[in-house]
Design goal:
alpha/beta; TIM Barrel; eight-stranded mixed β-barrel; 9 strands
Amino acid sequence: MARDRKPSRRHARVIAASVAALTFGSALAGAPASAAARPKGHDVSSHQKNIDWQAAKAKGATFAYVKATESTAYRNPYFDRQYRGARGAGLLRGAYHFALPDQSSGTAQAAYFVRNGGGWTPDGGTLPPALDIEYNPYDGKHRCYGLSKAGMVGWIRSFSDEVKRLTGRRPVIYTTTHWWNTCTGGSRAFAADHPLWIARHGSTDAGALPAGWSSWTFWQYDNSGSLPGDQNLFNGSTSRLKVFARGY
């Protein structure tokens, strides 16, 4: 998903290669065939600025995730209007945090996230908080943020535990299969109680999932399309999405 700071020029080539690895192919010409049977949504950040949420809904959007924070020193300056705007248009919406595990602890980043928009209430309109964890976009030499596999698993666990303590829900985990298996060593420690948001572009299906997960909850299938930001599907019906939002 979107980062809101620009990487240094000297890392641009490495980062471009990382993005290519994440997308696993060329962009699709529109949504996959499976989209017709699943609720459509999108995720946005400060890059999208002021969004016409009513227009997005008219194009089929059912839900949206809005970037709230990154590490412990950045908050999306458009978050409040984007988050409120999505709800005002009748979309289910949630917040996500862009993780930088080399900057501070998982506990500290989770606390910052929840204080700055990453909360959850069982009101039927709020999706659970989401953790965006992927290759380091700012330092190509430390793509796993300089953490060992066990260290990364520990970092994610501490983030999750703090989110659960503060909100009552485990976070959705946004990642790619390649990142997960590379940087956590294929940890199976989270699949049982963390919904998976898989990123796989340029394919007609979500492909092989990270170790431990047998199904996905959200699938980000493209970074452009009819909706602002990245294009996503929910793996279920609209009524099931509403149940998921309430936490049942």
